[in-house]
Amino acid sequence: MNNLFTFNDTIAAISTAQGASGIGIVRLSGKEALEIVDKIFLPKDMAKPSDFKSYTLHYGWIVAGCRRKPNIIDEVLLTVMRAPKSYTREDVVEINCHGGIVSLRSILELVLANGARLAAPGEFTKRAFLNGRIDLAQAEAVLDIIQSKTEASLRLSNEQLKGALSDGLNNIRKSILDILSLLEASIDFGEEEDATKTKNGRLTSRIRSINNQLKQVLDSASIGRLLREGVSVVICGRPNVGKSSLLNALLKEERVIVTPIAGTTRDIIEETLDIRGIPVKIADTAGIIEPRDLAEHEAVNRARRYFGKADLIVLVFDASKSLTKQDKILIRKINSRPAIAVLNKIDLPLKIKKADLKPYFKKIVELSALKLKGIGALEKALLDMVLGGRPIEAEPAMISSLRQKDCIVRAFNFCAEALNLAKCGWSQELIAESLKGAICSLDEITGRKVSDDLLDKIFSEFCVGK
Ligand SMILES: Nc1nc2c(ncn2[C@@H]2O[C@H](COP(=O)(O)OP(=O)(O)O)[C@@H](O)[C@H]2O)c(=O)[nH]1
Ligand SMILES: [Mg+2]
User: Is the pTM of this model over 0.70?
Assistant: First the structure.
């Protein structure tokens, strides 16, 4: 894994977001990166990039055409990072130019015309992985950092990039390897009848300890995924109960139009809140029950879809009015899905009491979206439902993706199988086979053993330029 791959081509891409901005970066990586910029960079002191020292910054211009009559494309700063101490472990050049679309594209085109190839999504990070600078879990962390929605998920991804997860898994892997070598020694050399019994006891306790460690990693998965992916919450309720007002109150801004006219909200409005580090994607829906026209018909369909796929439902009632038939229909629709009832408009004289809803909901929150009273209580109720009593603290070796979780589950199952075989005194070859299965599953997380298809799939989620 640690040997350098030799890629014959040099890749290039715009590494900053597309659109007008202060600066933009075109990045090159590969054997010819310096040679290519030699042809297009005109430094103030007329030196050549291929003579530049690593980790140095140079002022000059990107030019097209010959050096005597250059056509200036942009004024830039050029950074050189030589192999192997670079992001990809290859020669890397970053051209810091002005962040206009035309400037960035012109420089990229020039770089491509001079011998570079346009990088595929995630190809720089893929090279970093293939060249052994980072493992697959760390490569995934790079993507997570870019996509982090809250500070807590950013912290988790940074731990993973530093190698916390990989270190934890490598320790478990090493313990399994230790057992395997013991097993193999006795497979080869045979064993006395008496000694086998005590040895079996030791063997089962060692496998059990590995099982416990894997279980711990697995337990961290749900919080890890929660921090990374967040939860989706849908706000439902009949028209005019204050759904849009509630979303505005949660967002602390006037995001959605609120009027006393029923049917004001026709589209789904979706925003992400940060509740104690968990990204909560919250959607306000149209409260229409009987659509009057095509637009309302579509609004109802969309609301249904959101209702169907949300992790959690917030059903809003107007506490200043008695429960209506429409309210009751919605209560029935909740069935046994995770839901919180919100009694809104408690600033007005009340017609519904908490007790009226007790039979249907585990959590009921009274609030006033208009007067901003009780919003904190709703946030707390949301968090309680989502966490189900688990602590929110991010552990260092936390798994964050479904892919990683699948691998750990497989490793755990293999170990559980090995434990059973050992307990029942089955042959050591069989136990060894199961343990090897566990190692293979762990290796898929760090990428020690991974198929090209899976690599392609993982890196295709990256943006071009990363
Ligand atoms: N008194 C009072 N009025 C509210 C409260 N929440 C919303 N409203 C009013 O109820 C009406 C409907 O609100 P809106 O958020 O558009 O309801 P939606 O149709 O469920 O989205 C508006 O006139 C709001 O000002 C509240 O807590 N107290
Ligand atoms: Mg509304």
Answer: yes
